[in-house]
Specification:
Elements (H helix, E strand, L loop, with lengths): L10 H10 L2 E8 L2 E11 L8 E6 L2 H4 L7 E12 L12 E11 L2 E2 L2 H16 L12 H10 L3 E6 L3 E7 L6 H12 L7 H10 L7
Antiparallel strand pairs: 1-2, 1-4, 2-3, 3-7, 4-5, 5-8, 6-7
């Protein structure tokens, strides 16, 4: 992904992107060629520098050859199609707005104890949004089961050495066009996306809701 200073995300927004969209694509270039898999990720809140935590089911760690190559982690946020019919201007062409981050580096393999902690943190992070959260280790039976199956996973920490971000959110459009796009994204329709509209409002200074 090519860089564009106009669309770069600041570090705080990057961490927010991961927290709100914790499903990532992991890509490596192995001896067999390009290989990809998909796992939930967390921001390592114990570190000041950007680090991401995840786990892989075995034998995916061998398929991806974890620790032997650079790993590319792709985290994608809200995205969607914008029809040129929404703009109210001419000439116009449609486009796709999106938020995404590419994070690359050689991952660190965690100890089994650290991996279990990451799994617990992941469950807590996801469970906080349900009416009756169920922590992974709160119940003795669940805890024993979690300890047993965690052996089938490998925890890793990625502290990226290369980061590319892009939040393409109609920054090149005049305010009146942005407002028309927001109205279409926030109302029912085939390309409705309130989440994408919320991201656009962030970069456009909370554009008015009329």
């Amino acid at each position: 992904m090519r860089t564009n200073p106009d669309y770069e995300m600041d570090p705080a927004d990057l961490k927010r992107l991961v927290r709100e969209n914790p499903w990532a694509t992991l890509v490596t270039h192995t001896a067999a060629g390009l290989t990809a898999s998909h796992y939930p990720v967390l921001v390592d809140e114990s570190r000041e520098e950007l680090s991401l935590l995840t786990h892989l089911g075995r034998p995916d760690d061998e398929v991806l050859e974890i620790g032997r190559h650079e790993l590319l982690m792709i985290v994608q946020g809200p995205h969607g199609y914008l029809s040129s019919s929404w703009y109210g201007t001419s000439p116009a062409v449609p486009t796709w707005n999106f938020t995404v981050a590419h994070l690359a580096g050689v991952p660190e393999v965690l100890t089994p104890e650290e991996n279990l902690q990451v799994l617990e943190q992941l469950v807590d992070h996801m469970e906080r949004r349900v009416p009756e959260p169920r922590p992974m280790l709160a119940d003795p039976v669940d805890a024993a089961y979690a300890h047993r199956i965690s052996a089938g996973t490998l925890g890793i920490r990625l502290t990226p050495t290369r980061v590319t971000t892009k939040a393409k959110l109609s920054q090149d459009k005049p305010a009146e066009v942005v407002e028309r796009v927001l109205a279409r994204l926030e109302q029912p329709g085939p390309y409705s996306s309130p989440a994408l509209a919320a991201e656009m409002r962030r970069v456009h200074g909370g554009a008015s809701r009329g």
